Amino acid sequence: MLMKALYDNTPLRPNPSQPRKDRQPVTASCYLCSKTFNNSDVLRHGEHVLQNAIGGALICDDILCEACGGRLGTSVDGAFAEAIAPLTALLQTPRDRGSQAQAKVQLRTSDPNAKELESIGFLLKNDFTVVPTRPVMVPDHSAKVARIVASSLQQANQFKRSRPIQDLLTRGYTVEVSDNAAAYAERLLLTARPGAPEILRGILKIAIGFASLHGVQRRYLAHLMSHTDLTTSPSQLRSLIIPYYPVDDVERLFETEKHVHEDWYPTHHVYLFSHGRDLYCYVELFGVLQNYVHLSDAYDGPQLIEKFVQKAEKWHFNENAFIARSPSDLDILAKEFGVPQNQTWEQIQAQVLHRAASRSYRLEPDETIEKVQALALLLAQYARLPNPEGFECVREMFAKAEAAKTQLGLRLLDDLKANPLHVVNLLNKNYSEFRIGNPRASRPAQAFQVSAPDVERYVSYKFYELLRAKGREAELEYQLL
Ligand SMILES: [Zn+2]
């Protein structure tokens, strides 16, 4: 029965007879303390290469030891989770454990009775409830109603016993209680700090983890950490981590209204690549935070291009296909997912489910490249139509190109219209250089040349794009610090 479930009924899984080869052999030691794993005092840690707080689906158990994994969980991941909450609270981010994300917001209201709400802090949860940090009363004197908003109904009822409310009750007011201030919010302001050290350290950890997973030796990464922690120096972090900017026309086109054409938007991307002696890791989180991490300028190992792409939001996962119904089922599943069998049935089953769920979030990195190429060639095809504006799909494509021109300086459509032979350039282009470039035209080196105001404008646009994708641009606003 299980065999049927495994092999016939799970179209999202890769062909089980050809397991994904997604890593090179690595030296079995911890990248932080450099101790070799054993079964006594240096134990392997089941590490989320992308953090659990952002729904990371890439798990690896031979890059960090238990002690270091736990230590970085506290020193890097905890602060990262809090700093990234303005993004995760907006999204249905899948997590293995831990409470749901909540982000601090300020509220703006047009209700003159509710103006006091503007002076207190709120938490936005990812079910879009807006919870005040302390109870507050919103009076409506003409209707003789006092509305209490608090973090819970219990707290609201306690507050009801306070002197000012009791006074209103004796004057014939009715009291209503609520634990959600969303109804008063004309607009919510979320403060995001994409360049905060907590965010940058989280990104650095992803890059180091991904590089270690792909066999990059510790000596190339050692300057980024001590034996007990990743660097905490804000200036080192800022010099290592370069904000992404689309410097190529095809990337400008792709990064304009990405949510419309990118399947599964928002997604997480991690690309590890070398240009000569430079080793970089591109890290994109929720389609919004896009950065290059310059891991080394003295890399002399094998040339590298390794990619990982995953969905960033919850979607349906069919658990039943991965439940063992007999010992032989369990044995097959454990082997399939590389789960050690010297544990109880429940432990093996739990790990199998966890790994199966993680795998179901994976996306094929080449699909992004195919999408990029299709977009560019579609624009080329449309640009040559005799009466292009007569078609809805063409008008949409041209509007996208126009927006990319205004915001990011796209020249592609003008070039195509001016010179039909420009299509040949597009046909000959190497699309696998998307976000990577080549040693002579390294995208990180080019992005590094972009002025700070241009980068800031681009980052603001990305946050706005996410709000539009979630249909929240009318009520939510990001303040970027
Ligand atoms: Zn260690």
Automatic annotation (TrEMBL):
Residue segments, region Disordered: 1-24
Every HNH endonuclease domain range: 30-81
InterPro entries from the UniProt entry: HNH_5 (IPR029471)
A Pfam family of this chain: HNH_5
Domain of life where this protein originates: Bacteria
Protein name: HNH endonuclease 5 domain-containing protein
